[in-house]
Amino acid sequence: MAGTDGDWLPDVARARLARFDATGLKTSLLSVAGAVGVESVGLSPIGEVMGCIVQNIGWTGGLNYGMGGMGGFVGSVSFQPYVSALYHGYDTALARMTTEAKAMGADGIVGIRLTRSALAESGQEFMALGTAVRANATRRPRQLFTTELPGQDVAKLMYAGWVPSRIAIGIAVESQFLDWASRSQMSVMAGNSEVNAYTQLINRVRAKSRQTFASHARSARADGAIVASMSLRSWHQEAGNTPLLCAESSVFGTTIARFHTGRRAPTKALTIMPLRQPGQQSLRQPGK
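RESULT FIELD:
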């Protein structure tokens, strides 16, 4: 992903770090199952971490169109500046969160929540929120890992011989002019019919976001990736006298790397808890 100014931290983040250093209080956003899960693989939650940026996102795309067959419009719209702004928002939020976690001596961040919220005017808030964890071992990871997976899923992943690497994001924005045929398919008299322009647009933008997500996973030199969420939104925009269909698709997930092929991940929890200490024989007598 593109580089950011993530090494900069706001005053409130520095204040959080100061309180952490002064009190040593460990806080967590993990559920009970998540906290127990990461502890089972030697990772201790040490604190909540956050990264945030608010930026203005205006119209910076380019519009090119002309006359096509049957009197319709053909052309293309460049949304690359808009897509770059989205990447900058997410990347900066993640980088600032990571900087805070490194200052706490963390080895990774689990259960990350990535959000994007509209503010007044054209402002957008990008926020990354997660729980920093530290390895209980003398050999520590060389790089801090980030993942949207909850703690219990991180544990299952590591038991199966995989480790989370970093969050990957795929974003695509595409557009398509609404031709005469598609407009007739959307009329009140058309009944239940497929709108070809919409089908083509949605398929194209979803495929492009998945391709970008896969490209980011490959750039991380990962062995695989787990998709956490996918989203899609669409809107109409006027281009002269012709409606323009626009769609935005986003894919978020975690890249993973294999480190051994040993034990398998546990697939289910115990339904009965044995009431004995490790090494102690069962209280059930033979024949009963």
